[in-house]
Specification:
single chain; mainly alpha; Growth Hormone, Chain: A; 14 helices; 0% strand; globular
């Protein structure tokens, strides 16, 4: 269920981001919120979103200014090939159905997506967005990091409930240290970037979350929440705050205004796709240890250790990318036409 939500959400974000450029961001935001509000259920935990959604839709015309519309047709072929390609890759990695067939079909659809984007008059993901080196290096890191952090949250819930016997509410509250760490570092990351650089802050954050994931490889079989779970979650959250802020600023700061919706959609798609692929891969690693049967805490802890070892390796790859390729972007040229901005990025 988690992967289904993430794939649907992430797969449609490319189209949603470009729709904001074409139709106006306020209009798309209002219609998207209305659709979200209309889709809840009788369960009280979801029903609580309905009055909030109605209030947001009502206030949107008053508090949000409409953006200029670029016009043009929607790139439905690009949206479909990207969404289906990513979904099939996730299914293949999760070993659902015929994994080789799913992986092969997913790869072919993503190749088709690139070909479509090269020819589309108004591509859902303009390939010029990858011309800037800083942006091109931030995107794969933003794909890999959620592979580890989102799957860590998914797995820790299983550990707390199955190994430690915690209830759902208590297991949810167990993630407060992670939220606290991210809240603090995200607030101070922009100030630190003024002293150091976006690259230095991103490196610091990636090192911190890699260390937190390595710490989770030693989950205790019973008890020990404070040191075994809260400590690494706090470190991971602190690392995320230092990672997300410079990467978001890097991806969005140099993009042309006409492509800002597409760039935002690409950013969010990378993060959500990474989360979905990570859950598929790491939950598969864990499941191979417990074999789908009720297991004692020792077996659960062993399976978690294997999954977090893989997660630490993925985070280490992201660290190498940040250290070797990520650079602080050049300041954008105010009011520069799109062609000039593109020429500058391709010349770097």
């Amino acid at each position: 269920m988690s992967n289904a939500f993430l794939l649907a959400y992430g797969g449609l974000l490319l189209l949603g981001g470009r729709a904001g450029d074409v139709l106006g961001r306020r209009r798309v935001f209002a219609w998207g919120t209305a659709l979200f509000t209309a889709a809840l259920s009788r369960r009280w935990m979801l029903l609580v979103n309905v009055p909030i959604g109605v209030l947001v839709v009502a206030l949107t015309p008053r508090v949000l200014a409409e953006s200029p519309r670029e016009g043009g047709r929607f790139d439905l072929a690009g949206a479909l090939t990207s969404a289906l390609g990513l979904a099939l890759l996730a299914l293949g990695l999760a070993r659902v159905g015929n994994p080789p067939l799913a992986l092969g079909a997913g790869a072919l659809l993503l190749v088709a997506f690139v070909l479509v984007e090269r020819r589309a008059a108004r591509p859902v993901t303009p390939l010029r967005l990858f011309a800037d080196r800083a942006r091109a290096s931030a995107l794969p890191a933003l794909l890999l990091i959620p592979m580890t952090t989102m799957s860590a949250q998914f797995l820790i819930v299983q550990y707390l409930q199955e190994a430690l016997g915690w209830g759902a509410l208590l297991a949810g509250l167990a993630f407060l240290p992670m939220a606290l760490g991210m809240l603090v570092t995200a607030r101070y990351a922009p100030r630190l970037m003024g002293t150091l650089s976006a690259r230095s802050v991103a490196l610091l954050g990636t090192v911190a979350l890699t260390g937190g994931l390595a710490w989770l490889c030693f989950l205790p079989q019973t008890g020990g929440y404070a040191l075994g779970v809260a400590g690494p979650l706090l470190l991971i959250g602190a690392g995320l705050g230092f990672v997300v802020v410079p990467f978001n600023m890097t991806i969005m700061s140099t993009v042309a205004p006409a492509d800002s919706g597409a760039a935002a959609g690409l950013l969010q798609t990378a993060m959500l796709t990474g989360a979905s692929l990570g859950i598929a891969v790491l939950s598969g690693v864990y499941a191979s240890s417990v074999d789908g049967r009720p297991s004692p805490p020792s077996t659960i802890a062993h399976g978690m250790s294997g999954a977090f070892t893989v997660a630490t390796g993925i985070a280490a790859v992201a660290l190498v990318i940040v250290a070797a390729a990520f650079r602080t972007p050049r300041p954008p040229v105010p009011d520069a036409p799109r062609e000039a901005a593109f020429s500058e990025t391709t010349s770097r």
